[in-house]
Amino acid sequence: MKTVASQGQAFNGQREGEELIFVFRRHIIAMRKGFYLLLIPFALSSIPPLIWQTQLELFLLPIAGLGIGLIFFLYHFLMWRYTYYIVTDQRIRQVTQHGFFGTDVVELNLSKIQNISYNIPGFSGEIFKFGTIVIQTFVGDLVIHNVEHPAQIYNTLQDIVNQASGHQPQGDYEEITA
């Protein structure tokens, strides 16, 4: 998880007087489909050289399978890398990459947030420290799957929303570390 100091940091679309609190992205486990798509072409293309060991040309197949797998992996890596969440003292901004050229941006004003909850999905979530955060508003929910350290982010978001609504005095936020 990436944290950002609020001093001197800026992002695209930042409003005047808006303070950046932290930036986070989904856990690396969200890229598991990319890892599978890297390994499956390589594994399948490695079978023919193992069966017909006398034909040396077949030994190029695993290299081609690895190349195809790397293309699929790179695509999923870029989608993971350029999907992130920005938390400021005024709003939460979700930037989601779709394909190589599509980007979706969803913003929630902190004053519109009714409830925040999180869920850790069993044993794998506990071991790899990921979960789901649900931010509820009057118009719908923002569901963030595969968040790294969901309890820490939940607590920090709760503090920020409480401060924005006037329920808590201003103070330092809990630092989130990876």
Essential attributes:
4 helices; alpha+beta; 178 residues
Detailed description of the structure:
This protein is α+β, with helices and mostly antiparallel strands and 178 residues long. The protein has a domain at 33-77. The protein has 4 helices and 7 strands, in the order βααββββαββα. Strands 1-2-3-4 form a 4-stranded antiparallel sheet. It has a 3-stranded antiparallel sheet with strand order 5-6-7. A hairpin with a 2-residue loop joins strand 2 (84-88) and strand 3 (91-98). Helix 1 runs antiparallel to helix 2 (61-81). It is elongated. The relative contact order is 0.16.
Shape field: elongated
Radius of gyration computed on alpha carbons: 21 Å
Q: Trace the largest sheet across and list its strands.
A: 1-2-3-4
Uncertain regions spanning at least 5 consecutive residues? 1-7
Query: How is the main sheet built?
Result: 4 strands, antiparallel
The percent range for strand residues is 25-35%
The succession of helices and strands, N to C, reads EHHEEEEHEEH
What share of the residues lie within helices?
25-40%
Number of strands: 7
- Count, helices: 4
Q: How would you state the average pLDDT, rounded?
A: 85
Query: Structural class given helices, strands, pairing?
Result: alpha+beta
The rounded distance between the terminal residues' Cα atoms is 5 Å
